Amino acid sequence: MRLFLDAAWPRLRDCGVSWMGFYEADAPDASATCMLLAEREPKPACSPIGLHGACGSCFKTGKTLVVRDVAELGKDYIACDPRDRSELVVPCLEAGGRPWGVLDLDSFEVGSFNEGDARIVETLLELAHLTVKS
Fold this sequence. Notes:
Blueprint: H1 2-12, E1 17-25, E2 34-41, E3 49-50, H2 53-61, E4 65-67, E5 86-93, E6 99-107, H3 115-127
Antiparallel strand pairs: 1-2, 1-6, 2-3, 4-5, 5-6
């Protein structure tokens, strides 16, 4: 995780990404009740977080989530930084497709992420052996 962030962060911060980090499940099986912040850039964030909001939804479904405007997520949204306006959350999957965590990217701009960005990040995580193709 650290190597991935060290390689990606310098490039992504110049493209409007305000924060990125990995959250890991608190338990290695379906008994997970929350996620804990692991590696991140450039600053700490909320931890632990429940299995709701963008990260929790991505973790529970095992599907990438592109959030054009976090205001549309309603009261379940977990706002670690009130300036965040859009988000991309990609599941990190074990063999067999079970998520062990997520990679979360935030931006202060609405609409910063799209499906093309999602596919690129999924591929990069796979190449870094942080996920397997589902």
